[in-house]
Structures
1.
Amino acid sequence: MNPSLVATNLGRDYATPHGLVTVLDGVSLSMEAGETLAIVGPSGSGKSTLLGLLAGLDRPSRGYVAIAGRDLAAMDDAEASTYRGRHCGFVFQSHRLLPALTAQENVQVPLDLARATDAAPRARAWLERVGLGGRHDHRPRQLSGGEQQRVAVARALVHAPAIVFADEPTGSLDRRTGTAVADLLFALAADHRTTLVLVTHDEALAERCARVVRMQDGRIA
């Protein structure tokens, strides 16, 4: 089985007025297709930086990340953006839905970018799957926090990505709603054998993953 994600000797430095600061150093890991991984650790340990590098949202100072066999750092910005759009899905703590669009239009975004001819019915079907078929024409401000996050989950999975990255996907939700959203995310990822990488402070959520990586001072502890 070929790994769906490989990170080798990742490092990330940032220039500050006081000199170069290393926030991530020497991190390597790999994941098989359909595997679930939680990244945990205290604030400032480098977990969100690691997620950003794995997702190709940031470029490493050292090392490389390959998704489905392609080195993201070897691509220019336009190519990397297109590749992420085809192969990756994203769920963030703050939902990041577009406020002017309806729930259905938000879910359609990845399909529209890919110029899918069946974008509307596929988006509508995914809203049905996350229990929001009757809210397809509602805008984010008309939805609860849990409903917005369910829209975000549908948007992340609608284009059948190889891998989904989730940054504190339940962090802004109450326990009951957060559990429901997590149930949905894990179930849908399992149904489609989607690789799932999530950052969380929630130990109970982390324990649902097949593997847990603990970060400390920019390294895997």
2.
Amino acid sequence: MLKFRLLPQYLVALSICFGACEATQARQPNIIVLLADDLGYGELGCQGNPQIPTPHIDSIAQSGIRFTQGYVAGPNCSPSRAGFLTGKIPTRFGYEFNPIGERNEDPNIGLPPQEITIAEMLHDVGYTTGLIGKWHQGGAATYHPHRHGFDEFFGFTHEGHYFVPPPYNGVTTMLRRRALPGNEKGRWESGNLIYTTHMGHDEPDYDANNPIVRGGQPVVEELYLTDALTREATSFIDRHADKPFFLYVAYNAVHSPLQGADKYMEKFSHIEDVHRRIFAAMLANLDDSVGAVLDSVNKNDLNEETLIFFLSDNGGPTRELTSSNLPLRGEKSHMYEGGIRIPFMVKWNGVIPAGKVYEQPISSLDIYATAAQLAGAEINHQIDGVDLMPYITGSDKTSPHNEFFWRQGKRTALRYKDWKLVSMQRHLQKPVWELYDLSKDISEEHDLANQIPEKLQELIERWEKLNSQMSEPLF
């Protein structure tokens, strides 16, 4: 991985130095990151799925660039976000696992205070910074978003939250249960409430000690949560349109619990399976939320001053949500492509080419380095991302990355060029390695570990070298 250092001569009046960016010389560009939660690779219209229309998300790809090989830093929510926020492989600083439930309040679990987040970096060069939605980087006071560079915060700190609390008015709710009434298995329905045992466990206690807060104070939220986050995101843009801002909208859709608002459930009444229908309702609601954010940017005449990313935090959990990662193998928590390769796109009117598809591998870690360059922030510490602008504007024809590394306990992976090394059952002394050629086998169906032992050994050695740079887990 590269040590990225922005040199003074590289920062030329906030210009990207490609001759296509006079707009950025007037002021630092706004940066918006729209992060979906648990959205699978194969669910969007622009990714090839016609079942659930997503015109607003698709419009980002149509007016910008869609990445076909966009990766995140981890196969589930918290380490993935830690990577994006710091621009570093989270395992470098021990942020390896995904805290859930009461572990969110453990005073020893959270994004370490010494890590410099993208919000801190941008704040310190004049940006107003806001986080709307899910934090999941520690629920104790030490890790509060305000202490990690965010001027404003509206949302929650744990891994999930109900979109509507009991008695679940205005939505259809499907909850996981160990058993149905009568100690039965399967699916039980009563009005707009559905219980299902297909996952074999109960719905997590998402709302326990996990209020919606504004800043540091709990609030009572009346709206369906996706709509409430939309309200807060558009308000932030409207209030800060006169100055450079960084807005991180961390939706909790389409993460469980499965709750579809009535008007969206009606829209997808033709979908027979209510499980899939609820998911479709949640995704369409998310799409409209993205549309409202884009409209706010347009209304404030900020299109040519605003860089907008859209991506998911990890692959979709298919059995839980019905979310598709096709044509990729695996799902959330896996080191196969379906767990770590995600829908990813970016737009910036007048600067980034419109309607392009970028085929080289990139990473959510790159958002940090890209933002630093555009904002004129000097990075004097090691990060693993790179500035994407030379690549997506076409001035640099090489690949931004040759190598990616992931580790989460017994599961780990390395990608080197088109080769992928995976161990899904890694033991302390004896990993079980698989080898895939992604240029010919995007679905990871053909394990070549026994057929090409020399390539397998080469990648194992690369993995061992990178693994030696990583820290022990913090928790």
3.
Amino acid sequence: MTKEELEDEVDRTEVVTTEAERSSARDAAPKSSLVIYEVIRKDGLEELARPPAALIWSGIAAGILISFSVLGEATLRSYLPDAPTSYLIENLGYSLGFLLVILSRMQLFTENTITTVLPFMVSPSLKLLGKVLSLWGIVLAANLVGAFAAAAVMAQTAAISPDVVAAIRALSEHATGMGAWQGFVRGIPAGVLIAAIVWMIPQARASAFWIIVVFTWLIAAGDFTHIVAGSVEMAFLMLEGSLGLADAAFGFFLPVLAGNVVGGTAIFALLVWGQVRSEIVE
């Protein structure tokens, strides 16, 4: 049966009869992959059109707010009893920063590994590729500035209690001490999960809170690596003087960055493009 024949069959067997009923049925129906792709593509185009100053300030804010993932996890670790289940509970704190950033619509680098890539896949060009890479560079640099600012408060002021600071130090040493290869491969699932969150939210906006909580909790519980949240931990140790620039850059930052990009763009974005490509071409 051809597509036209299927559409005729749907029209003949439609249960509702008025346009208002048809509109209600369309609103209640799950969004198709093509519709979700278009929603995210338009969001990506809007991001690419934003002036650099707006990207910078939004990115700095995201870098600061994501620090609450580290702070939340460290706080729970400080006060939970030493029990087998405590690890799973403390990782709920990791979701706090992501809730702040994503629901506040701040610029987080790992979200852009899918949102700004989908427009490029529809209309690939060197000009658009340049805009994507420029936005990535601006947002990542701004996220780093915010991460270092937040880490400075944690490491060099009395704003955080000593017990929580000790937990932040332990978390930071673990995150940055796993080695370049392990940081890279553990960054891939994190990139996939952040891209999946971006993909799911247009379909289930009312459940966005729980989508973010569950899948960012999984990043922490699975011991995966995230470049921006992890940069807070990296910056904390650098400001304390226990992590050198070369070890930070080549042992943590660049491998995790590559892993997140592979997960978000090379895997997830390409998979969703393959899912809708034939419909877009048609």
4.
Amino acid sequence: MAVSQEKKTVEGDAEPVRERLLYTAERLFSEHGFEATSVRDLASAAGCNIASVNYYFGGKEKLYEEVFRRHLIPMTDTRVASIDKVMTESNGSPQLEVLLKAFADAFIEPLADEAKASRFMKLMVREMIDSHLPSDLFVKDVIIPTLSAMQTGLVRACPGLDESKVPLIVHSIVGQLVQAVQSERMLGQTEDAGFLRLPLAVVVDHIVKFSAAGIRAYAEGMSE
């Protein structure tokens, strides 16, 4: 079906078709990967015409990008907003633990829905192994906004901290948080986990205190 015909078919009902394609694409891409998922598969599973993929997204590649963007952009906005809120409430002089806790909670919150988070994590793993996204997507939509906000907050919360070290600090904190979420899921499915199974809130509080102590020691070491 030509695009002009497709427009007539779905006109007035654009949002449901677009949303069905996004939901279906997320599921199929996470289950089968980009290459093994055809446009025909996507259209069939979404209950729409093949031309819909081009009409709404400009092709399978752009649909794949949009699946990621609709997760990444809200996640980034939430994290940046949490940092901005702490900065505003502290008049630009935040307590380090408060800043780190706000960031940690904002980071964890989107991962609370296990079904959605599980699909997205599968997508992320597949993308790391076999990349099909533009190389600058994560840099522009996730890394730069987050690092910019955290750099301002950390330097204000910990005077003497070398700004050039902020990326390393954020990588460390993010790595701990990702590990915490993954461990909770894995241990939650293991009957013999015993003392290893800790509430996520407890682990997050530990990460905040541990990271704050490390950041302060880092800054003090630089000033010597």
